[in-house]
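Give me structure tokens for this 472-residue protein.
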Amino acid sequence: MARVCWPYFDPEYENMSNRINPPRCLSKFLNEIPFMVSVDNVTCQNSTLIKVDSMNKPGILLEVVQILTDLDFIITKAYISSDGGWFMDVFHVTDQQGNKITDTRTIDYIEKVLGPKGGAKEQVTPWPGKRVGVHSIGDHTAIELIGRDRPGLLSEISAILANLHFNVAAAEVWTHNRRIACVLYVNDDTTSRAVDDPTRLSVMEEQLKNILRGCEEDDDGGVGRTSFSMGFTHTDRRLHQMLFADRDYEGSEKADCAPAPTLKPQITIESCQEKGYSVVSVCCKDRAKLLFDIVCTLTDMQYVVFHATISSDGPNASQEYYIRHMDGCILDTEGEKERVIKCLEAAIRRRISEGVSLELCAKDRVGLLSEVTRVLRENGLSVTRAGVSTIGEQAMNVFYVRDASGNPVDTKTVEALRKEIGHRMLLNVKKTPGAGTGGGGGSGGGAKDQQGNKGWAKTSFFFGNLFDKFLA
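Here you go.
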């Protein structure tokens, strides 16, 4: 198949080479500026253009994509280039309703966090009402769990925490290829402070390990693990890292849970000998956070993206990356190519949850998560993905569920749930064939879902990012 060995850029960016390789007289001046960012609402009729110029450094693409993702932007197109010592990105973005970004506070924040004074993101405090993925845990202890998944496991985890007087303020749970990864933010249910008592943490860790060990008894590999963190983290990236380290990409989907052919991503890797790149092409159904998931995985696999073009016209997304390994080598063996393809497929699939989503809102109280997950378990439901958040006095949770055999939930079960918990909390039930959690900031997804795309629905809550109350 013929291939152009250089990424195509929209004609409106024909001056890109001058920006990437500025005149010598400007080089010294530009090298003293860590970031230059502009927000353009004039050039494009339907989207805002965010242009980022910077000195090149490892991980810079993921850093920028992560910030835009955490702002819940829909990225419809992007052009990326970072040859030599200079990095240049152009993103076409909209809000979740498909409108340009015109709010002055949002624009000021973009210019602050990506501009010359942005630097270390952990020093930037977002305005009220926005969720940002990098944060200080503050008065919360982060618990990371990974092991083999089974029906009712999340209920058992939350019951142990409730019995040990830990309150779950926020959590994110992913399952993929029969593995489960959780990041939970807990505090003492009396003091609402982080728990640093070694004895209490040791008891908690032992009990959690016991139930994870029980899941592994008939497994053919891997063991459950528990760890604690008091530092900085980005929940979504951490979940990707945990499942990647657990080698979930080597597992195989059960027959009844295998993706339909129309949902299976098409990934190819070819060589661009002229420029010395490997070219990774991804074509799949568009959804929120798709760009983040792919860039995150390539970065964590130690690959550098030198050029890329991203487009999400219509219901499908097309992405092309020109990459090399950090050591400068391209993917020159079939084994390397197969591994990258498997890892990217896994990264795309981890955020997809098919079936029914249950959105619950209630006044927060100690043990609420344990109660809700117990009800789900008693009604024969298995949680495939979950987001738990506490904002103010309100707990807002979303659970993607299937029955214990992995099949869609029937109407009778949904009605039984409404009768059992509907009088104590607000419950919204959605059918989500092929859905990823809501939010946005991928290469599309959110706005299109609201316009009626079938197969990749969006919820009204997103909890993968971090919450205002954690941000000091």
